[in-house]
Amino acid sequence: RLGGDMLLDRDQGMVDRISMMEGYTPLALARIFPPARDWGQTCDLLNAKYRISVDKRNQSMGLESSTTYLPRAYMVYRAKVIRTESEVKSFMAGREFDPSRMAVFEEDPEGLPRDTAYGQGWTAAITSYGLNEISLNVTSPKDGFLVLSEIFYPGWQASVDGKSKPIYRADWNLRAIPVAGGSHQVEFRFDPRSFHDGLWVTSSALFLSGAGLGVSSMLERRKRARVE
After folding, report:
1. Residue 66 reports pLDDT greater than 80
2. Secondary structure of 78-97 in HEC code, one letter for each residue
3. Angle 191-186-43 (CA atoms, 0-180°, nearest 5)?
4. Lowest-pLDDT range, 78-82, 140-144, 182-186, 217-221?
5. Residue 37, φ and ψ in degrees, nearest 5
6. Phi/psi of residue 58, nearest 5 degrees
7. Where are the alpha helices (H) located in 32-108, listed in sequence order?
8. How far apart are CA 226 and CA 228, in angstroms?
9. pTM, whole model, 2 decimals?
10. Measuring CA to CA, how many Å separate 133 from each of 29, 111, 183, 188?
11. Are 168 and 175 in contact (CB under 8 A)?
12. What is the rounded distance in angstroms from the CA atom of residue 191 to the CA atom of residue 198?
């Protein structure tokens, strides 16, 4: 994407398994692109490995690789809590914001690191990536936050070594969870309560419908037996 120019058709990513920055377009998210100093930093936050290049003279478009994008998953050790949207936008568009070193939260996260100096000895390797599940092996020299370049959306659950962890909205629309120092197995799973509520309502409705049909059939058989 470059302004209003698009090299791929809308929703083509779903067909060709290409992660598109705007996601699935019929799903209208309130927050799509994080605020930043410029469009390049916005792309970096969203792990955009390629950018559209437009040659207006020849009226053509192509793709060019980027070297500044942030990893799909990475550790930070500084947290900035800003509670209003306008202040978040202003801070993220300023020079003080460095997404590779810090995360901006809109609520107080648990496990705030005491040592906020940047540590280079971390690793965050994605071992499995699917539409509803993401697994990672994470190693960190100290307590910090694992940030995922994935859109924050209700219904996702996270665990570290099998223990549930809260998912926070970080950097406007990304996900972050607290991770202690050491080596850990991290799991993200999409398991919304609305699905289970809908399943219960559907199951109950099917049961009641089946029971009603059964009672109706039984009464009809008794009526026929009395007539005979």
Report:
1. yes
2. EEEECCCHHHHHHHHCCCCC
3. 85
4. 217-221
5. -65, -35
6. -95, 0
7. 39-45, 85-92
8. 5
9. 0.76
10. 20, 24, 20, 6
11. yes
12. 12
